Amino acid sequence: MTRLGLVVPSSNTTAEPEFRGALPPDATIHAARMPLEDVTADELDAMADGAERAAALLSHASVHGVAYACTTGSLLHGSGFDSRLESRLSEAAGAPAVATALSVVRALHALDVERVAVATPYAADLDELEREYLADNGFEVVALDGRGLVENVAIGALTPDEAERQGRSVLADAPDADALFVSCTNYRSMPALASLERDFGVPVVSSNAATVWDLCHRVGVEPNLDVRLADVTPANGD
Question: How far apart, in whole angstroms, are the C-alpha atoms of residue 235 and residue 237?
Answer without folding.
Answer: 5
